[in-house]
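README: folding subset

This subset contains proteins for which both the sequence and a predicted structure token string are available. Records are stored as plain text. Below is the entry for UPF0391 membrane protein RS130_02655 (58 residues), shown exactly as it appears on disk.
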Amino acid sequence: MLGWALTFLVVAIIAAIFGFGGIAGAAAGIAKIIFFIFIALLVLSLIVNALRGKAPKV
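--- output ---
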């Protein structure tokens, strides 16, 4: 999921360089939403693993 966020971020940067403001804004917004979903799922996963008593895999 983090890969998708980075992909949309790169698309937004490239679109901004070429002057496509609407596309750049939309791609940046999508990247932001996906990134925050990733962070929420990461925190949830860490909490569930802590409650189960399992050590995180390295």
